[in-house]
Structures are given as C-alpha cells and as structure tokens.
Design a protein that fits this description.
single chain; alpha/beta; Udp-n-acetylmuramoylalanyl-d-glutamate--2,6- Diaminopimelate Ligase, Chain: A, domain 1; UDP-N-acetylmuramoyl-L-alanine:D-glutamate ligase; Protein-Tyrosine Phosphatase, Chain A; 3 domains; 11-stranded mixed beta sheet; 6-stranded mixed beta sheet; 16 helices; binds ligand UAG; binds adenosine-5'-triphosphate; UDP-N-acetylmuramoylalanyl-D-glutamate-2,6-diaminopimelate ligase activity; ATP-binding; cell wall biogenesis/degradation
C-alpha cells in the first residue's frame, strides 16, 4: 500500500497541512466515489468546481484532500495538500499510486484530428495477430487482450488511464496503443505517462469551441511530442503541413511517413475501389480490404509503428494485409437486389467528411448518385456546422441534413446553422429532416439501383443524445432495415 508521501512524489506542492505518512486506500477525482481512507483530488472543471465537494469527501471517509484553494474550515485529522493545478497533480499521483505502469510496457500515443481510432485499433489488431499481449485505449472501447471495457472519453482522465494500465500490466500486456486527444493533453490526462512513441496523423479544423484558436489546438497536440523521452520515437505524417512543427522541440528519435515525398516510410496507392486498396508498401504490393485513400495513410502509419517497434518487415506486410476495417469507419454493405451501397462513417469534422466524400467520388461512376445524410452535434464547435453542410452540398448529388446528438441544443437551430453554409448552386439538392431515422428512411426510399448512401457522423455510436438522455440509435441497423424494406 502507498503512503501519502509516496504518492506525492514529483507533485509540485505549494503547502501541506497534516500527516503524510498515512496509508492511502484509493484515489479519486469524483467525490461521490470516495470511501474510507481515500484521497480526494478536487478539480476545478469547466462546469463544476469540485472544491465544493471537499466536505462530502471528508464525510465519506477521505483521509486527505488535494486542492488548489485550502478550505477556510479545515478538519482535524485530515491532511490538506495545496497545489497550483490539481489536474496536473492528479496525473503524477495516479502514476505513483499504480507504481508507474506505463514504464513497464511499451505505450504508444496516437494524436491528430482524424485517424486516431483507426490507427490505434489497427495497431492493436496487428500486434494481437502477431501473438503479443496488447492493450487499447480508444474512443470506441478499452481493451485488455480479449476483454472489452466501455469508455466515454477518447482519452480518459489520468486516474482511469493508470488504473487500466495497471490492470494491463498485471495481465502481461506488452504493447498499449492509446489515443491522445487534444482535450486530454491540455487537461494533463496524459502527463507523467512514459511513452515509447507517439504518432501524429494530421491536423484540421476541429474543437475550436474548446481551444479557441487553431494555433492553440496545434500546440495542444505538440505537447505530446515536446514531452517524449529521448528513448521514444516521434513519428509524423509529413504530408500534413503541421507535421514538422510537432517535432520542433522533441528530444525523441524523429521519423516521418508520406504518400507524396521522400520519407522514412512511404507508400503508393495502386488501386482504390469499393473492394479495398492496393498499396505499394516498402516496394511490395499489399492488398487491404480497407477502403479509401485516407486509409492508405492509416495503414502506412501502422506499418511504420510496427517497424519502429521491431516487427519483422515481411511479417509486418503480411499482418497489414490481414487487418480488418474498424467498426463505424467506412463500414459498408451492398443491398441484395438494388445493389445500393450503404456506408456508415464516423466523419464528424469538415475534413473527415470531405475525405470520405472525395473517397466515394473517386470510386463511384457518374450515373451512380451519392446521397449524404449528415448532422452536427449540439453543445460542440458550432463553426463547423456551415462548413460541413457546404462540403456535403458540393460533393454529393443529394443531401439530407439531420440531427446528430443535439444534446441540450434545439435540433432545428443546429440544422439552420448548417443550412447557412450551403452554396446557392447546391440549394436544390438539399433537404432537411430533423428526425435522423426519417432522414435515413428517406434516403433509402429515394435511392435508385446502384446508388450510394453515406450516413455520416455517428459511425460506431449506437445512441442519439437529446437533452442529456441517450436513446438507442444505430445508423447501420436503420440502413439495413429500410434498404431491405425498399429493395425491389
Ligand atoms: C470539456 C471537457 O473536456 N470536459 C471534461 C472535464 O469536465 P469538466 O472540467 O467540465 O469537469 P466537471 O464536470 O465540471 O467536473 C469537475 C470535477 O468535479 C468532480 N465532481 C463532480 C460532481 C460531483 O458530485 N463530485 C465531483 O467530485 C468531477 O469528477 C470532476 O473531477 O473533466 C471531466 C473529468 O475528467 C471530463 O469527464 C469532462 O469530459 C466531458 C464529459 C467531455 O465531453 N469531454 C469531451 C469534450 C472530451 O474530452 N473529448 C475528447 C476527445 C475529443 C475528440 O477528439 O473528439 C476526449 O478525450 O474524449
Ligand atoms: N488518416 C485520415 N485522414 C483523414 N481522414 C481520416 C483519416 N482516418 C480516418 N479518417 C476519417 O475520419 C473519421 C474518423 O476516423 P477515426 O475515428 O479514426 O479518427 P479519430 O481521430 O479517432 O477521431 P475522433 O477522435 O473524433 O474519434 C473516419 O471515419 C474517416 O472518415
């Protein structure tokens, strides 16, 4: 068991009041979970300042409290530790409490606007198929070898990350692939972790509600690379103009991948159709069932990481060709009679939507119409709404604007924000249907044989969130139901 002073190692402390030799049973950032002899870390959130819950935590048995502001009324027998930033302190405390689990395995962080889930999930698959014990921390799921755990955030809080890493280590996990979101990085969720490598996929317009400027958003991603140890590798997509910036202050060993120029790792797309991709990777032709040229980048990133982690090159190429598509990422099926191609994709940023639509347009023939069903989330970056609608209008033959997790916002108001982005020349091809199921049904009804329907935004998600309530909703299931019904 840890003493309080053990778990405060490396924490930048302003003041301590009380005994630090006591044994701490557990650590929490959520007061409701605190029990006897636990430590409570009070975080000043964007919505809630957890300092108000310090008395509750103490009533529930907390023996110590880490806070930014010392409460005026302090209890005898409780130890108070004042720090400047409780999120930062939480990261070190969690790392110490679980005895530095990230140093006992190879932890790879994957960051970038798009491709994090795909790259980390494909790496998990590849290393599992290669016979290693593996862990995954992603938006979709947390995995410890064959066990799956549900997750809410892309990058969980530092206590949760370290708890899972500890369990992974106990289960013999050798490699962990973890998504590092910009929110996670600036909120110190990934601080104090020992990374064996980091990957930068790309950077485009997203999350500007949170980071305010594009430069802040870029700098958030850069922190991951700035803080890598010398022994780690820093791998960037050099075709992205923000790639080189990531490496500027990094002490790690620097590598790049590219589809366009000379780099440490390169690939060429030889074929790209609804059956998959044919790539020239490392001078060898490799076929993959993954669809879309952007997946060439993801596969190249995966190949590069596996190579940097020492996987034999021939074995690596074989494993790459066996990788299966990731759930909700360009998942598709073709209806039996009408041969309508239905695609579900998680694209919920302007850049990702443009990528998916360009990918489909590069593959489809002129007489196959493209129907796009798309919405934008509520309580999130509103500046992307008109941009996404504009892209959908420009790159589809028919667009149905609809809802996608309106959360606490009025769904019609979100759609109106989107409509503002439609170019006058595209207005005729756009209709708005607030109910997502109705929007999907309409697309299935309107589509003619061999047409293509893209339902974008939700991907693997199986819910719709309205006013804080999540109800079941599965794009793929609705597409299957209605295409079956209308398949003549
Ligand atoms: C904007 C944002 O990042 N919010 C995160 C942040 O919330 P917050 O600062 O508002 O925290 P809060 O809800 O005010 O609570 C503050 C503290 O009070 C505590 N509390 C609260 C109530 C109580 O009774 N007792 C108590 O102790 C909470 O446990 C928390 O520690 O800290 C919380 C605890 O770590 C996170 O759960 C929360 O994620 C929310 C749910 C969220 O939606 N985050 C998204 C935006 C996010 O982080 N997304 C990125 C990926 C984005 C992408 O790439 O697509 C991600 O990594 O998931
Ligand atoms: N390398 C890439 N470049 C551009 N777009 C991509 C790339 N990889 C995936 N996409 C598009 O972005 C969508 C989201 O992919 P993915 O889930 O892998 O990204 P992500 O970074 O994890 O995003 P999020 O954090 O929002 O989950 C995909 O469905 C696809 O449309």
């Amino acid at each position: 068991m840890n003493t309080l002073s053990d778990i405060l190692y490396r924490v930048p402390i302003l003041a301590v009041e009380g005994n630090t030799s006591q044994q701490v049973r557990n650590i929490h950032i959520d007061s409701t979970k605190v029990g006897l002899n636990d430590l409570f870390i009070a975080i000043k959130g964007t919505h809630t300042d957890a300092h108000q819950f310090i008395p509750n935590a103490i009533n529930q048995g907390a023996l110590a409290v880490v806070c930014e502001i010392l409460p005026e009324k302090r209890n005898n027998g409780v130890t108070y530790i004042q720090v400047e930033d409780t999120r930062l302190a939480a990261a070190f405390i969690a790392d110490n409490f679980y005895d530095r689990p990230s140093t006992k395995m190879k932890l790879i962080g994957i960051t970038g606007t798009n491709g994090k889930t795909t790259v980390s999930s494909l790496l998990f698959q590849l290393f599992k198929n290669a016979g290693f014990k593996v862990g995954l921390i992603s938006t979709v799921v947390i995995k410890i070898n064959n066990q799956d755990f549900q997750t809410k955030l892309t990058t969980p809080d530092s206590l949760t990350i370290n708890k899972y890493l500890d369990e992974m280590q106990k289960d013999g996990v050798e490699y962990v692939f973890m998504e590092a979101s910009s929110h996670g990085i600036v909120q110190h969720r990934t601080k104090a972790l020992h990374f064996a490598g980091a990957v930068f996929t790309n950077l485009s317009h997203d999350h500007l509600d949170y980071h305010k400027t594009f430069a802040d958003y870029r700098d958030a991603k850069k922190i991951l690379f700035d803080e890598l140890p010398k022994s780690a590798f820093a791998l960037i997509n050099t075709d992205d103009k923000n790639g080189d910036v990531m490496l500027q202050n990094s002490r790690a060993k620097k590598y790049s991948y590219s589809l366009k120029s000379h780099s440490d790792y390169t690939a060429k797309v030889l074929e790209n159709n609804f059956n998959g991709l044919l790539l020239k990777l490392n001078d060898t032709e490799v076929w993959s069932p993954l669809i879309g040229s952007f997946n060439a980048y993801n596969l190249l990133a995966v190949f590069s990481v596996a190579d940097l982690l020492g996987v034999d090159r021939l074995e690596n190429l074989r494993l790459i060709s066996e990788l299966k598509p990731v759930s909700g990422r360009f998942q598709h099926f073709i209806s039996e009679k009408q041969k309508i191609t239905a695609i579900v994709d998680y694209a919920h940023t302007p850049d990702a939507l443009e990528n998916v639509l360009s990918t489909i347009n590069a593959i489809r023939t002129k007489n196959e119409e493209l129907f796009t069903v798309v919405g934008c989330g509520g309580d999130r970056d509103a500046t992307k709404r008109p941009l996404m609608a504009k892209i959908a209008g420009q790159l589809s033959t028919q667009v149905i604007l609809t809802s996608d997790n309106p959360r606490t916002e009025n769904p019609d108001a979100i759609i109106q924000d989107m409509e503002k982005g439609i170019e006058p020349t595209d207005v005729k091809k756009v209709i708005s249907i607030t109910a997502r199921e109705q929007a999907i049904k309409t697309a299935c009804k309107m589509a003619q044989p061999k047409d293509i329907i893209l339902v974008a935004g939700k991907g693997h998600e199986t819910y719709q969130e309205v006013n804080g309530v999540r109800s079941d909703f599965d794009d793929l299931q609705h597409l299957k139901n209605y295409l079956n019904k209308f398949d003549k």
